[in-house]
Amino acid sequence: MKKFRKVLDGLTTSSPAGVGGSSSCASAAGTPTAGPSPREIDVAETLTSESFQICKTVRHGFPCQPTALAFDPVQKLLAIGSRSGGVRILGRPGVDCYCQHESGAAVLQLQFLINEGALVTACADDTLHLWNLRQKRPAILHSLKFNRERITFCHLPFQSKWLYVGTERGNTHIANIESFILSGYVIMWNKAIELATKTHPGPVVHLSDSPKDEGKLLIGFESGTVVMWDLRAKKADFRIHYDEAIHSVSWHHEGKQFMCSHSDGSLTVWNLRNTARPVQVTFPHGKTQRDGRKESCKPILKVEYKMSRNSSEPFVIFSGGLSYDKASRRPTLTIMHGKAITVLEMDHPIVEFMVLCDTPYPNEVQEPYAAVVLLEKDLVVVDLTQSNFPIFENPYPMDIHESPVTCTAYFADCPPDIIPVLYSIGAKHKKTGYSHKEWPVSGGTWTLGSQTYPEIILTGHADGTIKFWDATAMTLQMLYKLKTSKVFEKPKAVEGGRGAELGEEDPYAVQMLSWCPHSRLLCVVGISANLILYRFSKHDANTNITVLEVRLQCEVEEVISPSDTENTPCLSDPSGHSPQPPPSPRSNTPDSARDSIPCLKVKDRTIRMPPGYQAELVVQLLWVDGEPPQPITSLDINSAYGLLALGNCNGLAVVDYIQRTVLLCMSTLELYGAADPFQRLTRSPRKSRQSTPDFCMRGLSNFYSDSKKRIRTFYLFHLCSNTCKIIDLKKKTSTPASMKYNQLNFGPLVHQIPYLSFCILWKYNFFFLSIFLCPSFTCSGARPLTPSIVLCPSCPAESRENSFSRSRSSSVSSIDRDTKEAVTALQFGESYGRKTDALPTPCLWVGTSLGLVLLIPMSIPTDDQERQEEPVTMAPTGTVLMLKGSVLRFGFLDLRGAVISAPYEVWRDPNAQEDPERPRKRKLVNFSPSSSQENCGEGHLAVVCSERQAVVFLMPAQVCLHVHNITEASFVLRADLVSFCNSVCLACFCANGHVMTLSLPSLRPLLDVNYLPLTDMRIARTFCFTNGGQALYLSSPTEIQRITYSQEMCDNLQDLLGELFTPIETPEAQNRGFLKGFFGGNTQTFDREELFGEAAAGKASRSLAQHIPGQAGMEGMKAAAGGAVGELARARIALDERGQRLGELEERTALLMTSAETFSKHAHEWYLGGSGFEPATF
């Protein structure tokens, strides 16, 4: 009994026996015993630990929770900051770089050093960072941490090395970009405002230098005060006080006036000649009411004031400003050009926008050509050169999150023809109406790497859509989109109907995907316990969808009430495998009305299906006696066999999709027969259940054999307001009801009871903590502990993006033994169903949540005609293998260590015209274990991975050759057999964030890296490996992160990524003309170094800010000489020298002009005889 319990709970460490045997592989009801191999298995393993290194490669998708936006008009690069401290830098397609601040603080503002290959980020932890973009992997060169003040706004003038930093206290500091040291020059708020002002002006919300004079700095305070500060004179030129708070300021390029946006939805224009009052006040969206007052409007958060050469009318572009009575309207971007006002409605709130202009010089005609609008969940670029303002087609995969991603699949080294075919089909359904101009963000360079192969990513979504993505060469482009909801009728929202029973927000949500790139078969499992089989066709078709209904429900033992007179809630067995909320409270409709019906209704009419993936078959699990079908937890399809298998916590079903029949539908217990290692008893028929006024909870039970006798105990729970009551039904006594749920301490109980597990259920907005323990267990000689149920008030439920989508039977340990044993893994393949088999036959490997593996051999007709007519036979053989933890993955190797792929059928178009004289035949590709071996009777190796361990069996002897306990403190979430460096290995991802690889077949640990210490449910749901040493997961609700665990790919990663910085000459400033240059403003130069340098301004206080070197320390600072800062210094020196030469040339030109004018004057006087000579006459 002790040995049996050790196998059952899966908590003990296996001890090798023989050739790596383990107690977990012990014999039980026909299971093989661990022992030496019948023959020496000698496989040359080429993989070593030096072959592996894990690193991130590229991130796709829209930045989650964006906060800031910046654009380099010369390099044509776009930067987006996020709340999590991430920075995405985008250029032309293929140029996509992700940077992350180690602090994780939100990015408040971004500033490009235009055409210098550097970026300044201001974060919420009051730190400035300088990033070097002249390398494919940007790195921080310097950081400046403010200690006493909070950063609110930054401004970096074009071609300047001095950064203006505004703070929450209203002060303005100046930092040197090259050294990242604060200057002693500080503009204090009390000096900027008038001395008579008694109130604080508020934080600095705007900083900009005058386009007319760089020595004048415009400072905007939140309260409505605007100050023009003379940097040379160190005093204010003028001060403006406005009643409404200021959100943004924008200059006219001539520097004579500027525009402010305010909190009351107004725009004010101020002229520098008269700052007493604004020259213009407008409410763009505020109508005049009957009493003459303007209706109240929302704040205008930002305004851009630009001019175009082709029009004398300015472009005024702003966000917000709508009247409050239009609350139902979506967020808008307003474009005012002359008398025309265009309002563009957005699908999501506007975070930030920028107007892209041709010139980087602020004192030139801006010539706006596009507006980049950063939304909370999208990026939109508007074409300003056309009157209807169309948007550009976004080349980046920014719509991954169009509907929440529920599952992913990653396929590397696909057939080369699949991507062009999918693209040609998907291109027919693309949206139209985009701008015909090229995408304006075109910076950087990217070339196709030498080592590229077709890669495809599939994403399933909550609305039932499936997207195919081309992931070749570190890029991501959508190929094709499929909507599974078109297969079903729209559910009728009838009160008390089945739709209400399901309680599903997304009844079409995709839960699982199985795709064969070779046969182009696609199997989709939905959250409503349905499975859809799709075939690919290049032609449209009018077909009827075949529906197979499967009654896969496990009978539950009759409920034993503590008293026949008590009306206690009936308890059922929670599966613990379903990610969706359980059914809502029942209505008054009798249970018989909910028997043998599916959750969704398939369209029963002829449907026209366009080219692409076309639905052929739908398998639906049915309601049974008022109980909804349990979600499907495992799936496999094989095109060569023409079979698909699905399983859940009730049992297994096998479908022949060629003959459209159900071959097998059995509960898991029935699959064992007499070979059940736990010797469980047959379930009794279901009795009619009692109902309660509020809701009927199904019970929590567990199997534990004590002298082959089942002990069942049920419990009653009562809900008191914010209290929990523990009731012992055997004694009918309870603990005081006044004990709060947060006062319960299960810590000592967990340490004292080894056979204890927990199961969390979400139901009726409450969390139920179910405690299972062995009824026969006693603690320190005390009386046997009686199990109980604790009901706790609910905590906020996790979002859909942060919950498991696949089943897990054991969240703490594999002892979570409830009455339903789930089918967690399925695999078709050529194998040996019995020890006595001499040749491999088609088999189905079945893994369960109790760590058991069953083999089901099949007899499939080989002839095409017989396959259409003769039935497929299959029956369990009683072969049972045992592991610790829920079974996750199967894989097969030949005796040389090569992967044995599953056989498949070569794709053929089902709707193509056939030649009646030459009927088409199925072309099968079979990978039999004997195909690569001389002796067909040698057998093969079976690799089985569970949540706890990996085991290699020799078939058909069923001998355990190798076993490795992967983890004891955690559990494996994902495991895959992957081809890697002309070899194969087992890759695992654990719940504690560890990524591991094991050699095959010896199961030697090759890699164990704590890659994601703080993993979450989203990552657990979407993490998947693929061949070539790559993997991916959903790093945020909107982004896919791709990683590699290959040392070779890490070494060649620089060649695969795009270059951010490209050497481009800065455009020349426009010639202002003689008259405009002579009469138009100040011509004296402004040397910031003389004002802000240490010699003139001194040093700032050390306690004000702390300089932090880059990640590489002093090496990074030395490397900066050859990077952005060094290049910036050299460029500045070259610019100064060039400017000096231009100045000297201008002076020489002026002298020549003066000499020429003097000579011309004297020559003219001489000609008129002014020299005493008279003109000659003829």
Automatic annotation (TrEMBL):
SMART domains: WD40 (SM00320). Its main location: membrane. WD repeats lie at residues 239-280. One of its GO terms (molecular function) is GTPase activator activity. Residues 1113-1168 form the V-SNARE coiled-coil homology domain. Keywords: Cell membrane, Coiled coil, Cytoplasm, Exocytosis, Membrane, Protein transport, Repeat, Transport, WD repeat. GO terms for biological process: exocytosis; Golgi to plasma membrane transport; protein transport. It is found in: Cell membrane; Cytoplasm. It comes from the Eukaryota. Residues 15-38 have a biased composition (Low complexity). Residues 15-39, 563-596 are annotated as: Disordered. InterPro entries: Lethal2_giant, LLGL2, V_SNARE_CC, WD40/YVTN_repeat-like_dom_sf, WD40_repeat_dom_sf, WD40_rpt. GO terms for cellular component: plasma membrane; SNARE complex. It is a peripheral membrane protein. PANTHER family: LETHAL 2 GIANT LARVAE PROTEIN, SYNTAXIN-BINDING PROTEIN 5-LIKE. Belongs to the WD repeat L(2)GL family. This is Syntaxin-binding protein 5-like. It comes from Denticeps clupeoides (denticle herring).
